[in-house]
Amino acid sequence: MYPIITISREFGACGGTIGQKVAEELGYYYFDKDMIIQAAMESKFLTPEEGRRYDETVPRSIGFGEG
Question: How far apart, in whole angstroms, are the C-alpha atoms of residue 2 and residue 31?
Fold first, then answer.
């Protein structure tokens, strides 16, 4: 399992800048929401409509959130 760090922030709080710096310091890859949604749509895993619908949510069919 790869370590994952997520950053929750308010609009205008420089979360992307902070996230990039943290990733750089720790030697992690940095991915933002737009990059993840774009990659999913390019892989044909999601349609643009599904990408918008699943933004900030995770469908149970992916396997997360199941108890």
Answer: 14
